[in-house]
Amino acid sequence: MGKSDNKIVELSNYRPTDFVLERVDLTFELDPTNTKVDARLIFHRREGTEAKSPLVLDGDELALSGLLLDQNEVPASQFEATPQSLTIRDLPESAPFEITVTTFINPEANTQLMGLYRTNGVYCTQCEAEGFRRITYFPDRPDVLAPYTITIIADKAANPLLLSNGNFLGGGNYDEGRHFAAWFDPHPKPSYLFALVAGDLGVIEDTFETMSGNEVALKIYVEHGKEPRAAYAMDALKRSMKWDEERFGREYDLNIFQIVAVSDFNMGAMENKGLNVFNDKYVLADPETATDQDYANIEAIIAHEYFHNWTGNRITCRDWFQLCLKEGLTVYRDHEFSADMRSRAVKRIAEVRHLKSEQFPEDAGPLAHPVRPTKYREINNFYTTTVYEKGSEVTRMIATLLGQEGFKKGMDLYFERHDGDAATVEDFVKCFEDANSRDLKQFSLWYHQAGTPLVTASGAYDPAASTFTLSLEQMIPATPGQPKKEPMHIPVSYALILDNGSVVTPNAVAGGEVTGDVLHLTKRKQTFVFSGISSRPVLSLNRSFSAPINLHFDQSTEDLVHIARHDGDLFSRWQALNDLILPILMQAARDARDGNQIACEPAVISAIVETAANEALEPAFRAQVLALPSEADIARELGSNNDPDAIHAGRTAILSAIADAGRDVFQQLSDDMQIEGGFTPDASSAGRRALRNSALGYLTYAEQSPARAAEAFASADNMTDLLQALTVLEHRFPETDEADAALGAFVTRFDGNALVLDKWFAVQATIPGSGTLDRVKALMADRHFAPNNPNRVRALVGSFAFSNPTGFNRADGEGYRFLAEQILAIDPKNPQLAARILTSMRSWRLLEPMRADHARSALMTIERSATLSTDVRDIVERILKG
Ligand code: TRP
Ligand code: ZN
Predict the structure, then answer these.
(1) What is the reported pLDDT for 2?
(2) What is the CATH classification number for the domain harbouring 572?
(3) Does 654 fall in a domain?
(4) Could you say which of 158, 162, 459, 697 would form a disulfide bridge with 152 (CB–CB 3.0 to 4.6 Å)?
(5) Are 182 and 62 members of one domain?
(6) For residue 388, which atom of ligand 1 is closest to its CA?
(7) Distance 14 CA to ligand 2 centre (A)
(8) What domain count does the chain have?
(9) Which atom belonging to ligand 1 lies closest to the Cα atom of 380?
């Protein structure tokens, strides 16, 4: 199972390989259980390396069945092969030489979904991060780049389609009903970007003309019959290609770009050069089966993988510690793309919600690590929201510090200087320094120091001096392995808003560097004095979330309401409403726990309802305001001694209070936000649907009856509305006739559609309350469940553990014991999936003592297992220790 060694890999031990790989030539003779792989590799010894050092190639569960050196068999005395490595001695000292390695592998038995595997009868590969070594012995590290020639031979009837990276060279018939195809990728690439797909799939085709006039063939492959559901992905691809040309000057560089959708996949998608492989969940969509969120995800992930062609493929990572170099940057690029395609402010709100609910807890818990870590035991466990999302925020801050122009100059220099390289984070940062003559040394701490900085702010207005004084203090919490932190360079965007809503620009600011509307907080404590302020302003801080920090700023309800009404930055208006309601939800949780009356400040309720009713604001924004902080958000803010039942009860009471107070507004919205005509997935229609569904949700709180949701379920003409209605029925009125009827109708209607069935599983797995565990257990035996399919497992077990606070954190600890059993059952088949789901336990120390105790013993049950994968062992030990 994976690597059997348990060694820790350290950045400080990095050194280049002794041998340079010049060319790769692979021949696959595909067979479901016995695929033959011939790898011809041409190397030469790197100048300056120690003479006589052996060539050591990586393997994972491999058996060597043939080894040639310059076409001659290598004597047994000259090499050593284990499942993990192949070592060859006495190689030519200066001349290039050719090694031919033959292995046989079993794609059908590959349940890890790393390397070459089968999914629904289709051969497919996943090589990032270290999957290539499960195909053949190879220097399987990202700083070894070479052009690849691939020949695929397979049964023609079963596999009419034979695909690999690069441009198609040719193909033809072979013996015994077989055929072959050859592909050549001229762009040197590391092994993690290799891909092969073979099988029988349907295709939709299009073309794209690049800015210099090259025509690129675009193909998206899906299961036969699903072709129409790939149209939106194709459209998103063409928009991505255009956008990257316009915004970053990046042009596509092969004559073909292909995407294959598969149903068994460990993550979202993979950016293999010229041949992206996708989880079909992020390709397939039509109004009947996909929600607005699904459409938005498809657009973002298609863009993300396409953008990797430059940030990841043309410029790759020197080693896996540099993962954020491609991921953080590419997430930033896909965020900017979605912002341009949709509403920038609403997109930013969604990003920050996601960052706070996923990355902040990671950064505050036992799994906290820097954006650029310095050691790992299992690289699979570092595809984290810290590397991706915080990595994106760090890139965004560079843009904030340098301005759009300066950022562009830095990016241009990066592409110019490092095209074809395996680069480092330092290389990247240096481009921005050099292009802008700026020192980013202190700023770089964002890559190296883990933990979310806490910034405490306080302000005072002096009418006599016409000054406003702002004191800022930063504190970076201790994280595993990093007890002490240095002060960071934090860009804090601000505005001073007057009574009449206008924004004042001070005539001078003292106390630190200020560029435009950005304060540069660089010391532990810093005081900024704004002068020429003729009346008391309201301070809006960290606008657009200019820095990924926790901000403690004790502002009055009046000031926050003022920001919510007047800030020119829509994000800040949302933020202010969030800052108003969060303490109320926290107090409601405490009151629920203590059996006190739960109350909500009327001024806050009216600010929310007023915003919902404000027709000058886009519907998607209003829907974001109505979507209160989640139970997990409240738990995070409470910080310790969490009782999920009390949090749920408190939040429900506040929802009801808002529902009662805003009943007329919600009724009005549910009428006004109806959409005439057919479904379109554009952002503005999606916003109207979101607002209407939100209003419907509140109305069912006010009415205490499932009738309205049952009616919405019956009349829905798209998946967004249908699923929302089903969710309200199941979560709020479970086991009523209405809920049961809807659930049954849903599964009957979508019986053969796995992606929709995932929604059916997830809705049930997230029903609040202690009874849900039994339902989840029963669903594990449902005929629609598939224990080896990652999407199904995530939909049922993952949703339960990550997104059902009251159900999973049952007071008796049964939820944790169930999870432990599941982890131990999944791990031998798919360690990556098991480790990922186990991270749902990362905040166990924040639970009240009884639950924390149960959680610890469940974790210890896992830890005691003798046969854990490196993936799960790494996570369970860190979660228990940290
Ligand atoms: N590089 C991919 C992306 O972010 C994600 C990825 C990493 C992945 N490892 C994987 C996908 C393993 C599938 C399986 O776009
Ligand atoms: Zn990526």
Answers:
(1) 43
(2) 1.25.50.10
(3) yes
(4) 162
(5) yes
(6) 4
(7) 23
(8) 6
(9) 9
pLDDT (tens digit per residue) in 322-350: 999 999 999 999 999 999 999 999 999 99
d(C-alpha 451, C-alpha 486), whole Å: 12
CB atoms within 10 A of CB 271: 23
**Dihedral angle of Cα 183, 188, 191, 195, to the nearest 10 degrees:** -30
Dihedral sign (CA 358, 360, 366, 368): positive
Per the residue annotation, which of 61, 305, 389, 393 is the catalytic one?
305
Supply the pLDDT for residue 4: 47
Same domain assignment for residues 513 and 605: no
- pLDDT, residue 501, reads 87
In terms of domains, do 214 and 302 share one? yes
Domain containing residue 503: 454-547
Q: Are residues 779 and 864 located together in one domain of the fold?
A: yes
Look at residue 5 in the predicted model and tell me its pLDDT.
Answer: 58
State whether the beta carbon of 612 lies less than 6 angstroms from ligand 1.
no
In testing the pocket of ligand 1, which one of 140, 266, 275, 310 has its CB within 8 Å of the most ligand atoms? Answer: 266
Is 305 one of the annotated active-site residues of the chain?
Answer: yes
- Amino acid code (one letter) for 594: D
305 in contact with ligand 1, CB cutoff 6 A: yes
Q: Of 519, 547, 575, which residue is a domain's last?
A: 547
**Inter-residue contact 556 to 538 (CB < 8 Å):** no
DSSP string, 794-857: IIIIIHHHHH-HHHHT-TTSHHHHHHHHHHHHHTTT-HHHHHHHHGGGTTGGGB-HHHHHHHHH
Which residue has the least CA distance to atom 13 on ligand 1? Answer: 267
| Ligand 1 neighbour 128 (Cβ under 6 A) | yes
3-state secondary structure at position 216: strand
Of the residues 704, 731, 761, the one at which a domain ends:
704
440 C-alpha to center of ligand 1: Å? 30
Ligand 1 atom at minimum distance from 269 CA: 11
Query: Which residues neighbour 522 within 8 Å (Cβ) at sequence distance 6 or greater?
Result: 442, 487, 488, 489, 490, 512, 513
